[in-house]
Design goal:
By secondary structure, the protein is an alpha/beta fold. It has 11 helices and 13 strands. Magnesium ion binds next to helix 1.
Length: 322
């Protein structure tokens, strides 16, 4: 569905040369490579997280995949089309939602933007009505239809952006930071909605985000880039396994205080928290089985729960490593 080989984007760096007063000679001095020989292969219906620190080249990649930017080098195809040729059918097959750019007419009621998009994409009236009413209900936007674009809250705006993006039922959705700045509830609503369109309509989604809850809840697969190059491509659980060297373990015991007293001198263990019936520790993954055996020898353990280390920590570590 989405395919790229050796995808590269260079931007020229201009420097002002010396000139007569008031006159600048602008010369192209060098090039900056924002995306470097990137290979991608994403199947229909996948929901992939596309992560990387600021400036890694995520937005530039999404712009090339959606046909906004022309690659400097490399092959690229999305649903069988070459994006930068911008064929009419290609534009119907994809949608691109950017947090920092709006599709809404700011001075018109949002329902006018919806109607406009429905018309330029020739969506039949009955289909249009069905989809819009479903999405409006899903996002609880019924009383916002008459609101001017510029008067929407950030959460409402993002929901309206998604409605715009899906009016013509694209096959591929590129999302650039759709949950940035949203409160927890709005972010959750956006996630639930994305799950629905991915599962029910098989929409292929490539999602850029800094919100690790998005990744954990939505994406089986994660691609990480840094300085324009791919540094990880695999399942999200693999990412945790590879880079999460810590393991958290919760022991359910009769007497947590006693266990804490016993563990306090052990340098391999950090006590994370405790309740009236449990103690949660953190330790190196490699030493976990030894620690569990020791504890089970010392006290009666009623139950054990395992937790993976926090994905945000893991990704942060990966960024620092590269
Ligand atoms: N039009 C442009 N001209 C020059 N440099 C650009 C342009 N667009 C992006 N860049 C640079 O390319 C790099 C990658 O940018 P971007 O793709 O926006 O990163 P990300 O979305 O991962 O934060 C950044 O260093 C950015 O400054
Ligand atoms: Mg970006």
């Amino acid at each position: 569905m989405i395919f790229a080989k050796d995808l590269t984007k260079e931007f020229p760096i201009f420097k002002r040369g010396k000139g007569f007063p008031g006159v600048f000679f602008i010369k192209e001095r060098s090039k900056f490579t924002a995306v470097k020989s990137l290979d991608l292969s994403i199947e229909k219906g996948e929901f992939v997280a596309f992560l990387g620190p600021n400036g890694a080249g995520k937005t530039t990649t999404l712009k090339m995949l959606s046909g906004v930017l022309h690659p400097t080098e490399g092959e690229i195809s999305v649903n069988g089309f070459v994006p930068y040729e911008r064929k009419k059918q290609f534009k119907r097959d994809i949608s691109f939602v950017m947090a920092q750019k709006t599709q809404l007419f700011l001075e018109l009621p949002v329902k006018d933007t919806f109607t406009f998009i429905g018309e330029i994409y020739d969506v039949p009236k009955s289909e249009y009505d069905k989809r819009i009413s479903h999405m409006i209900e899903r996002f609880d936007l019924g009383d916002k239809l008459e609101t001017l674009g510029r008067k929407l809250s950030l959460g409402q705006r993002m929901k309206c952006e998604l409605v715009c993006a899906l009016i013509y039922q694209p096959k591929v959705l590129f999302l650039d930071e759709p949950t940035i700045g949203l409160d927890i509830n709005s972010a959750k609503e956006v996630r639930n909605f994305l799950t629905e369109i991915n599962k029910e309509f098989g929409v292929t989604i490539l999602l850029t985000t800094h919100n690790m809850s998005d990744v954990e809840e939505l994406c089986n697969r994660t691609i990480v880039i840094n300085k324009g190059e791919k540094v990880f491509d695999g399942s999200t659980s693999e990412l945790k396994k590879l880079f999460g060297t810590k393991r958290e373990i919760e022991f359910v015991v009769e007497n947590p205080k006693q266990l804490i007293a016993q563990l306090q001198s052990n340098k391999d263990i950090v006590i994370m928290n405790s309740t009236e019936s449990s103690v949660r520790i953190s330790c190196e993954r490699s030493g976990a089985s030894k620690i569990i055996a020791e504890i089970m020898n010392q006290v009666e353990v009623l139950d054990i729960n395992f937790y993976d280390a926090d994905l945000a920590d893991i990704v942060g570590k990966l960024y620092r490593q590269v």
